[in-house]
């Protein structure tokens, strides 16, 4: 009780010594917060670290809450993530202490930030000033705890790995540290436990392209000159892209065009329609790549795997068209060509048909026509010979067409399975 009375007397004395407070009349009469504000500001030096013993370190507690991820700029390797963060800082100011009983039991009050000492905590990865709202006040409790809660919009540098686009996971860091003060003056700590901070998504707006996985935190002490040490708190914001939009607009159209290319192999090899069909597909895929080129992320240090996928698909379409041209050339105007060499007949019509499980080589799709022609073979021997030549070349062309088609199909399946497996592994790694 004696201590409280002495404190009250000192408070009254200070208020008397402050100009304008002795006759506190008018609209400020009996205004407790005004009296408390004048009491706290009397003789306060905001440029001095608020400790009575200079050897004591000011401990600043930091907390981080992610509200939204607005965008990511892969091309410039910048977390133009315009991310909204709610940054919480707390520290103890030994000069902002009062007895609540002397001020109508006021336990805390707001004070202009410009009037109190604030630690120089910065984010190392800053590359641009975000459009953050100005919060001009901090909260102070009667025992000197200062709470600086503010939302900030940050634009930070981040090394983005776009190889797995659109199934990529990005890990961007935010490093908080005092720009000037050493560890002897300012130290950092987490306001909450690291595990609680990691899983907290309570305020995250989960409607955009990016999904927040977790926020990792790590405290570190480092020295630049082996003399003075500094404290830093690093937060790793791990985000994952939602691939549905890119799957529907990029992958599925490409897959549909490749499926149509496979269907084109069922057109007769001696039909000119197959060539025009595949040329149309190739032109359509070229237009598709021009349209999606602006959608794909591009950097100077790498290309996403999906870009390689599109290039390989284009190459497969070119190979498919080349195979079709060769087969059509092979079976065109057979009556003007010589007989099929025996080695080629043995290799293609006997060995390859067994390997490809093609039924009797004499029961190919031209046999019915050739059987009708053979009825007049006795009268048109020379004509029969040319028909036999045409039959042989058609048989060779048919078998080679089936062989190349199956090789092409196996290559596409192997490529698709490999790509799908890699994306699955990266997505759940």
From TrEMBL:
Recorded GO MF terms: extracellular ligand-gated monoatomic ion channel activity; transmembrane signaling receptor activity
Topology versus the membrane: Multi-pass membrane protein
Domain annotation Neurotransmitter-gated ion-channel ligand-binding: ranges: 35-243
CDD domains assigned: LGIC_TM_5-HT3
Signal sequence range: 1-22
Listed transmembrane segments: 244-267, 279-300, 306-328, 403-426
Family: Belongs to the ligand-gated ion channel (TC 1.A.9) family.
Name the record gives this protein: 5-hydroxytryptamine (serotonin) receptor 3A
Native organism: Salmo trutta
Lineage: Eukaryota, Metazoa, Chordata, Craniata, Vertebrata
């Amino acid at each position: 009780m004696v201590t409280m009375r002495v404190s009250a007397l000192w408070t009254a004395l200070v208020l008397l010594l402050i100009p304008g407070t002795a006759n506190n009349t008018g609209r400020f009469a009996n205004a407790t917060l005004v009296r408390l504000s004048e009491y706290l500001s009397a003789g306060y030096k905001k440029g001095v670290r608020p400790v009575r013993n200079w050897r004591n370190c000011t401990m600043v507690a930091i907390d981080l809450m992610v509200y939204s991820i607005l965008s990511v700029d892969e091309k410039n390797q910048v977390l133009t993530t315009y991310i909204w963060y709610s940054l919480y800082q707390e520290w103890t100011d030994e000069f902002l202490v009062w007895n609540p009983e002397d001020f109508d039991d006021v336990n805390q009050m707001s004070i202009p930030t410009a009037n109190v000492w604030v630690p120089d905590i910065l984010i190392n990865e800053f590359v641009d000033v975000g459009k953050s709202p100005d919060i001009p006040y901090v909260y102070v409790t009667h025992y000197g705890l200062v709470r600086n809660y503010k939302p900030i919009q940050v634009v930070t540098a981040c090394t983005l790995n776009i190889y797995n686009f659109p199934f990529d996971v990005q890990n961007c860091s935010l490093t908080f540290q005092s720009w000037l003060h050493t560890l002897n003056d300012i130290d950092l700590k987490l306001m909450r436990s690291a595990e609680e901070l990691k899983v907290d998504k309570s305020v995250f707006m989960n409607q955009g392209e990016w999904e927040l996985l977790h926020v990792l935190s790590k405290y570190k002490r480092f020295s630049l000159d082996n003399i003075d040490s500094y404290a830093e708190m690093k937060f790793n914001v791990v985000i994952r892209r939602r691939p549905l939009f890119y799957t529907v607009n990029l992958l599925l159209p490409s897959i549909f065009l490749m499926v149509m290319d496979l269907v084109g192999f069922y057109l007769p090899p001696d039909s000119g329609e197959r060539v025009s069909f595949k040329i149309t597909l190739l032109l359509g895929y070229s237009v598709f790549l021009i349209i999606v080129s602006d959608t794909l992320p591009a950097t100077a240090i790498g290309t996403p795997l999906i870009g390689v996928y599109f290039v390989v698909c284009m190459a497969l379409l070119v190979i498919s068209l080349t195979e079709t041209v060769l087969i059509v050339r092979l079976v065109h105007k057979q009556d003007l060509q010589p007989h099929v060499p025996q080695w080629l007949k043995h290799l293609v019509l006997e060995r390859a048909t067994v390997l490809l499980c093609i039924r009797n080589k004499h029961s190919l799709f031209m046999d019915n026509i050739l059987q009708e022609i053979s009825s007049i073979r006795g009268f048109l021997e020379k004509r029969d010979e040319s028909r036999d030549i045409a039959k042989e070349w058609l048989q060779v062309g048919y078998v080679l067409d089936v062989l190349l088609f199956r090789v092409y199909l196996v290559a596409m399946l192997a490529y698709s399975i490999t790509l799908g497996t890699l994306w699955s592994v990266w997505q759940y790694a």
